[in-house]
Amino acid sequence: MYRELAKVAFGYPIIDNHAHPFLKEKHRDAIRYEVLISEAHGDALNDAVHTLPCMRAAAQLSQLFGLTGDDATWEGVKNKRLEFDYAELCKLCMEPTGIQCILFDDGLGGIAEMAEELNWHDQYTGSKSKRIVRLEVEGQNILQDILVANDSSPLSIDILCGTFLKEFTTYMNDTAVDDHVVGYKSVACYRTGLDVDPAPCSADELHECLASASEQFKENGSIRFEHKALNDHLVKIVLDIAGKCKKPIQFHTGLGDNDITLTKSSPAHMQPIIKAFPETIFVLLHSSYPYTRDAGYLTSVYKNVYLDFGEIFPFISADAQRTVVRQVLELAPTNKILWSTDAAWWPERFYLATAQAREVIYEVLAGFVSKRDITEDQAVSIVKMAFFENANRVYMLGLQPNVSILSLQS
Description:
Blueprint (H helix, E strand, L loop, with lengths): L2 H9 L2 E6 L32 H14 L8 H8 L4 H9 L4 E7 L5 H4 L15 E5 H15 L7 H20 L4 E6 L1 H4 L11 H18 L7 H18 L3 E3 L19 H6 L5 E3 L7 H10 L3 E4 L3 H4 L2 H14 L5 E2 L8 H24 L5 H19 L16
Parallel strand pairs: 1-2, 2-3, 3-4, 4-5, 5-6, 6-7, 7-8
Helix pairs in contact: 1-15, 1-16, 2-3, 4-15, 6-7, 7-9, 7-10, 9-10, 12-14, 14-15
């Protein structure tokens, strides 16, 4: 046991640089619980209970909930959690995490209808929560509002395009000076892939995309941007704004559900757009799993690229988590790695993510120390940077680590 390393690995405060809000109490059982440990949807979720991540999560949550013997199962966990008062459940899960500040992406589908407001979560952290703006969702909302406002007298496609781009750019410029907003996020990976084209798109292309989106709204009553020229154009608008205001932009990379095209989810596709915006800070989310090495490579050769090693906790096995963390550390500068839960909906996800991450980072770094690859002091410094210091600097949070937020263990 390396005592100083254990002390920080299991007890240092954490800035969670990417997460999603809790469900409100009345919606606490509105989403299938297997989403806690899998990105699968529909019938594929039936198989999630047979994975190593689910078995490990069941054991850890059983211990947290005081379940033993035949009750310490996934079904036992699902039943027991509903017996807790919701506030009690949230406190039970969040107190051991040591999370001091959470940066929330509130653009996930269902949040507006079922989730708590961002600063509601401040009761479980030592610092105020901050917002990450999901650009595609805001764009969809803006276009939808324009179409609704002009329903009785539809705008020409030329005027619609000009109005939409003006309002979108104005909104993003307003967020650039909003102290509650500390960054942006793109889900281009889900929509059209990470091969964002740095070249300008033509007016004809934008008109065609907006006409298609408008028709989609007429038919379905909703809009989902899946038009490459438009999506790429909006990303570039925000990349420019983010570079000027020095607020990072996060990109979903790698690990996701069946809505992504896996072959287009590697951050290697982003090299041209990273080169085109050297003043903009790119944060590659979710360990870029299974393309972690691609992401680490980019962080090592581009000053403006950072890597988040989140979401793998609890979504992949413990052994795989250790492998991913080792791959992150193969090449990525340790002053450019960040950590997040990517938790959504339930406090249990925050608990599992932090408990597993603390265990894994200790084991990996202790292994390096034992082989004399690094000193224990260097390992301690890496933990502090990964869990707190790097995110504090990159998102310009101005926080001091509150070491009293969690009882330090040894």
